[in-house]
Structures are given as structure tokens and as C-alpha cells.
Amino acid sequence: MHRDCIAIRLRLPGLVVLGVKETARWIEVTAQYERREGVCPRCERSTWQVHQWRLQRKRDAKLWGKEVWLALFKRRFHCRRCGKVFTEPDPVCGPRRRTTQRLRSTVARRAREGTVRSVAREEGVSEGLVERSWVEAYAMVAAPSQPHVFLGLDGFCVRRPGRMWTGMWDLESGKAVAVVPGERQADVERMLERHASRESVRAVVIDLSEAYRQALELVLPEVAIVADKFHVLALAGRALHEVRGETRRPGNLAWLLQRGAEKLNQAARARLLQARSADPRLARAWGLKEALREVYRKKGWEEAAAALANWIEEAERSDLRPFRRTAATLRRWQQEVLNYWRYPLTNALVEGKHNRIKALKRRGYGYRNNR
Fold first, then answer.
1. Domain count of the chain?
2. What domain range is 241 assigned to?
């Protein structure tokens, strides 16, 4: 009788333990599946006749700091009706896998907090297994519990120069719908055809990207396209920057010009008033920027439509070329801008998710692939 041993449950459902061998570095568990019959994949009849036994060694999660190996006796059955020879299923590891699902889940969970290399060294597995385990556990987007109704669509840079990906997110649940390489119209069309339903989606928020708009009009012709509020106001901010031509830094005049008037204290307002009095073009540009912000304070669609039309006409009549260019852009996107009053949605959630992705990308500097 052994006085320095303990017994614990294997916790791999369906397996019967035949024997255990332990050394200072590893533990080997000999097992087989407890079912006595197999179901033929061709005729779907049960058969008990065993054609061949095979011994396979599979890696399991560590126990007490020791590697655990599973010596699994697998049977190849012979169907007495149709004559097909087939191998019994392996739900513990999966088809053609040399590791248990428990080990892959453990490795994937640890890879969320550590680097691929460190996890591979600590678990005694290859870096490729760590990457594949993480992709198996987290890269596949689960089917939604409810149909997608409101979606956000935006691109983000994966690698400079110019390698862009496109992400689509459910604005109600905050969960990812799809993330695909590229931001061309063809890339977005394929993503929408696969992940967006014409019957359920009612509105999609995008930036002012012509490729996104054309893809939506082709794949989801009945959906309401909403121009993101931040990107619309950013057009006026960039136009004001072109008029002023000064780099924005905290506290300087360019920074004060971009701030909302309601956010400035008394001293900052006096300083801004002095600068506007000294430069009429700057005062005109700042007034147009603030007027566009006022459009978004309108309560109803009709009031907003009138205010936006007045702003476009006023900007077109101005002698400020950047604002005339902005007015031309908003005239082309006028309907999408006004859809905000039908569906008051923004891409703030999408921008936040993509910022987190870019932060993770910087943390993973040096990896050879995008995973």
C-alpha cells in the first residue's frame, strides 16, 4: 500500500482510467473510452466489432507542476452492415488533435495576460500551439443571441503605411460582429453579406467614407445610413485649423479655437475675443465652426434640416476656401447627417474598441503576424 500518494478525478468525461504512472517530471494516464459501440458515419448503424486498437499519446494540462500525458487506446470499428472501417470519435481532444481541449483552454486563458513565448515556455508547449489555442478560444465571434439592429462600421490601422482593417460592432450589445482585413468597398460588401441581415438591421453608423456608403447601398438598400457626429464636426475643426495654420497645444490659441465656447473660462473667452477682433477671417471661421455645433443642438428633424441647409449656404458664400470645401462635402452627405435625428447613434463605442485594439497591437510589437 502506497503511503505517499493521493487519488484525484481525471475530469475528462467519457474516459475510463486503466492505469497511472508517475515520475519526478511527468504523469502518464492510460485510458480508453467507456462506450462499447460506435455509430457508423455511412449507414448510421451501431456496431460493436473492433477492427483495430491504436495507442495515441496526447498532452493534457499540467498537474502539480508536472506534465500530464494521456495514453489513449482508440478503437477502429468495423461496420458489419456496410463494411466501413472508422475510428471512434474523440470529444476530449477533438479530431486529429494531439492535445486535450482542457490544455488548449488553459493555454488560451493564460495567453490573454502574458506573451506567447512566456506561456509556451511555462507550459512546455510550442508557440504555434499557444497561438492556435488563442484563436480557437477567442477569435471566432459567437452567434448573436438576438438579431443585429444597430451597427457601427469603422476602419483602423493595423500596420503603417496603409494596412487597414474594418470592424463592425453591435451598438446595442457592444460586441464585435466581424473584423476583416481591408477597407475597400469589396471588403465591406463581403462582410455585410455574411454578417448583416436585411430583415433585422435598421441603421448603420459610418464615417464619411464613400466606399462604406456604396457598399451599404448595394447590400442593405433599405438601411438608414447615419453619418457619425464626431466625424462631421471634425470637418469644421480641420477647416478652422487650415485657416489658422497653427499646431494645437494645450493652452495655446489654436487649442482655444477648437474648444467649445461653453467649456472656456472667463480669461480664455477674453483671450479668444481679442484674437477674433484682430483677425476677421479667424472670427468668421470660428463662427462657422460653432454654428455647425449648434446644428446638433436642434431638437427635431425639420429644425435640424433647416439649420444644416442654412449652414451649407453660409459656408459656400464665405471667402474661406476650407469651409467651402466642407460645405460641398456636407451637401453630398446631407441625408446621412440628418439621419442622426431619426437614429441618434454615434460610433463612440466603435472608436473606443478600436483604440483598445491598437493599444494591444502596440503591446504586441515584434510579433510576426496580426494575431
1. 3
2. 229-341
